[in-house]
Amino acid sequence: MEETKESLIFKGVAERLTLGITRILENMPGVVDVRFVEREPAEKRSLLSWEQKNTCILPEDLRDFYLTTDGFTLTWSVKLDSECVPLGLMTINSVARLCPLLQPVSLFSLPNAPSLADLDWEENTECGTGHAPAAPHFDSRCRIFELDSCGGNGKVCLVYKNCTPGVVAQQSEIWFLDRSLCWHLLTATFTSYYRLMITYLGLPEWQYAFTPYGPSPQAKQWASLYQPLTFSSELSSADPAGEYHLNKLDPTKAFKGKAKLPVPKKKQSTLCSSGSTAKSQGSAGRHSGGKR
Fold it and tell me: Digits of tens for pLDDT over the chain (292 positions)?
């Protein structure tokens, strides 16, 4: 009885953590093998140790999340023919894996080896122009921690901007670093990002929906299949016509056969031509008789 109660309690907690997305995925056509990894809550001392080590205060919502579960992993696959293909992936790194993006320089590294900090220069105005927020820096002005590696398609990071050495940083945002090492703001709070991740079902490259160039064509096809409402709203917001993202097929033109030309009626045409010539000859005869 006690084991049954504990399983029911954990099932309720998992249901609240996933916002019911597991049931939604299981009812989708073709979706198989929905897995949610169970994790114990993080200890308070591990959170305090992380804050002291990195001179940063964790956001209140992220702290509450870690006190509920030490990280988050939910995966799901689709069945194509007789093969299961992994597709969806939702991940939040544990406290132990919430590591700085900029690792300290190793003693064994070359003295003139390039680093990410070399990408920062004052003349760089590629990001943060106009009314857009200023992009994070790779140097000591920012403290950046990896929340999700995005399956190698970029990195979702917890970013503290305008940092001063030796001063505890408190304000943070969630940014996406794409494969070209350009920054894109996702949300201002962890709660908003978590809901965004659930809404996009962890589909491949969903973070690129917040970039000017968007996901790859293959990722767009998956999104149009398993997330049609959000995908269609993105198309309408990007382009009023919403047609340039996908190939448009007109069935009336694609499956229309060759038009058959009507066969001319030879008899009718010959009769008409003979009648017209007879009329012309008769009129010519009358004119000639009148002259005589």
Answer: 444 544 444 455 667 778 788 888 888 888 999 999 989 999 999 999 999 999 999 999 999 999 999 999 999 999 988 889 999 999 999 999 999 987 654 444 556 655 666 666 554 444 544 567 889 998 889 999 999 999 889 999 999 999 999 899 999 999 999 999 999 999 999 999 999 999 999 999 999 999 999 999 999 988 888 876 555 545 444 444 444 444 444 545 544 555 555 666 655 545 455 555 555 555 545 544 544 4
Distance of alpha carbon 127 from alpha carbon 141, whole angstroms: 16
- pTM here? 0.71
Residues forming a β-bridge with 156 = 148, 176
Residue 197 contacts by C-beta under 8 Å, 6 or more apart in sequence?
Answer: 90, 206
Q: Are 61 and 113 contacting, i.e. CB atoms less than 8 angstroms apart?
A: no
Could you tell me the CA-to-CA distances from 88 to 32, 71, 178, 250 in Å, in that order?
Answer: 11, 17, 19, 32
Beta-strand runs (E) in the chain: 31-36, 72-80, 83-92, 143-148, 155-160, 173-177, 183-187
